[in-house]
Protein 1
Amino acid sequence: MDGTYELLGPKVQGNPEHAQNSLLVCHGHGTAGNLGSDVPRTYDGLREWLAGKDIEGIVFHHDDGRMAKIKLRDFGLKRSH
């Protein structure tokens, strides 16, 4: 399947997702799925929305194929476990 993927598993980045086995997850098909217009598009709005979430970040997909990944650490936030 075309797209971008995230490698998860017991030997990857401390396994924050607590995966039992190694696996590839297509972006946009994880636990959050397609968030659509619910995600704010301003700096302050994104920071507030991301705060306290147990995710690495969020990937925005544009219709023309461009993508942008924003991570919690971009806002000085840490992942809640």
Protein 2
Amino acid sequence: MLGAEVRSVASGSRTLKDAVNEAMREWVATVETTHYCLGSVMGPHPFPYMVRQLQSVVGHEAREQCRTVLDGRDPDVVVACIGGGSNAAGTFAGFAETPARLVGVEAAGGAAVTHGVPGVLHGMYSRLLQDEVGQIEEAESISAGLDYPGLGPEHAHLAAIGRAEYTTANDAEVLEAFRLLSHTEGIIPALESAHAVAWVTRSAGTDDLPGGSTVLLTLSGRGDKDVAQVREIFGHQRDA
């Protein structure tokens, strides 16, 4: 990675939460010679705001392109996956002041909006998965990028004021969405992004997403990194 030293995390559940823990420990111990960087909209201010602003380039560009192809109109629905929520925060930023419906799709084994309560983690106040005494609980997802027990503060705010809605997709739905997009469009989505695809395919033609709706879906990453994992899962299903 451009000469960077990559260190694996051996503590805790060895997921995104633990990687952030270790990065923060290193940072505060060597703050005079290091700088903390995070790729999601979580952590202490100003990091969630910085990431959201950088990612908002995607949202603003998407809005302009939509208005070009939709004769000046905005899409009916804007949907993106949610872990920490960086890609969704950037996309939503481009449409927050429009009539578009904003939908974030969390992993069913996490779902901080659905199952979480307000709390503090990694220097941010948001909705978190925690027990009755405030201990953080583990999130579970087929996707490493959504395996986080909270979400960015702005998403918690958007949910609280009703501007955005948050729902879930389970692992089986995600795998089917991964397969569907790969076969029909030749696009291999990241398992994270496949959560958003799963919601669209599940909801299409229902009252939740009526036929004829215009949908903008953010694909936050390529599935190259997930191909080996998905191949193994499909192989086990075929052999069962």
